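<purpose> Linking amino acid order to shape
<body> The protein record starts here
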Amino acid sequence: MDWDPWIKFAHIAGAVTWLGGGLTLSLIALRARGATEMAVLDNFAGTFSFLGLRVFTPAVVVVLVSGIWLVLAHSGDFTQPWIALALAAFAVAFLIGVLFLSRSAMRLERMTKAGDLAASRRALDSWLAGYAVVLVVLLFALWDMVFKPGAGG
């Protein structure tokens, strides 16, 4: 059985989930940010951990594992410019998520539990700014996957 189409499918599905899910979550966050009731922000804060563990973490793992698998199955050359760019984009998006976004989400959850509307909005604004950067990085990665700069042939 040829696993290549299935691995490509998994890679694309993971990337679509990460990019599309993140864009959707950002739009929902913008809407929640305008709420005047703490319950709305508190409910949204709980959405972060729920989706992070059940949607985003698996998608990120699938993108990484399937991407590495595809490179190893085809050329094994991680120094090709488009592959190096993809790995760099992945690393940047991943590090922003781990080092910044997760902390912003935890701060949002703490502030909503404390009932501090202004601090909750600041935490959400911080998350939105960070995720805007991640979305730009993921769009770059998408461009890189489609156009494969520096690829021979």
Notes: The mean pLDDT is 95.
